[in-house]
Structures are given as C-alpha cells and as structure tokens.
C-alpha cells in the first residue's frame, strides 16, 4: 500500500520535470505555501489557528521566522532553518548540530502546540515558526551539505549576474516567474483525495528522505561558475511549484493533527 502511494505521488509531481541566506524560499514562496495550507485546513483547526494568530493568515505570518533574524534575542533559532547532510547520508546517520536543526525545530514547535500547559503567547510564537519551518523543509537546499552551506557557496551566474545555487532555488526562479504568492497558490496543480493522502503519508523523517533525493538532483543540475537562465528554469521550475504545494498540504496535515 505504501509503495502504491509513493508511486502515485511520484508519477503526479514529476511527470513534466526531467530532472543560510536571507528569505528562505523567498517571501512569495513561503506565502504561497501558507496560502495552500490554509485551503486544506479543517474548520476546527482553522478556528483555533485564527484565535492564536489574531485573525492573521498563514501566508501573512509565514515570513515571521526570517524577520526575527535581525533581532539578536532570537539568535538561538538560527539553526532551525536547515539541516546539514552529506548526499550519501540519512538524517539518522548524519552528525547533529548541537544547537538544533530544522527537524528538531519542527518537532519542538509541534510539542509546544500540543502541550496544554503552554501559554497562548508561546503557542502563537511556535505556530508562526512551524509555518515557516515546514516551508523551509521543502526547499531542497535546506537539506544540503555543510561544506557549501546548503549551496550558498556553489557559485553560479543567473542571467549573467553572480549568484549561488541556494539563492536560485530560494528566490531567483520564483522571482523570474513574476507571479504573486496568490497566483502561485491558485495555479497549483489539481489534486485528488488519493494524491493528497499520498502526500500526507509517512513521518517527518520519511519526508526528509524524500526531499533529500531532490537535493541530490539539484546539486547535480549545475556546473559551478557556469551561466544558467531560461533553460534551467524551464527544466526545474515545476519542481519548485511541486515543493511549494507539497509543503502546503503537509503543513495543513500537521496543523489539522495538532488542533483537531
């Protein structure tokens, strides 16, 4: 049954595709994921989330975890945005960051939100963090190699301008598509109940392993210092769109489980 669900999601999302910087996933990417998640929330979860966020949307608060980086009071959360793994490693075998990482950050947020003794203030903070971190998880370069800082040190030319592999996947391709976050969310692929179930299936570590396979493809998609432009976006932007949508559906799954 699990194999059948995996094949279903793989066939749907990869049919067309041949293949620690500011604003992870970019602002529009995070907002699109939040908007998609909002459309998959059940009524009970939405009501409780509305109360914690004072009516603000998931899209609106999705960039909060990046915004607080400018405040040293929140420096302890910096390592929550990523997890470093060699391409031949799994999360279980990889060396762990003693300051925490993307996986421990997500699990901490979930634990706080499930804890009945947590204050409303703590729940609101960790909810905003969770919304952002699940988005970060689905940006493949957030599960990148330590030696190049998740692709930040892999230099490329993007339309003749100096950039890096991480930035191309965080923001450059999304910016180049020239769509608002609402347009990105509204143009997401139509999914059946079976496809949604396939996306939601598995554990957090199953999702990490799945996304890490995409990470490997991203690293192999460029030659360092080579110019990339229209063709690269044509070959890979479908993966970006898919990851935004998968992240949104899984974020809603997590939130529905917490608040229902």
UniProtKB/TrEMBL annotation:
CDD domains: S1-P1_nuclease. GO terms for molecular function: endonuclease activity; hydrolase activity, acting on ester bonds; metal ion binding; nucleic acid binding. Keywords: Disulfide bond, Endonuclease, Glycoprotein, Hydrolase, Metal-binding, Nuclease, Signal. SUPFAM superfamilies: Phospholipase C/P1 nuclease. Transmembrane segments: none annotated. Residues 1-18 form the signal peptide. InterPro entries: PLipase_C/P1_nuclease_dom_sf, S1/P1nuclease. GO terms for biological process: DNA catabolic process. This is Putative S1/P1 Nuclease.
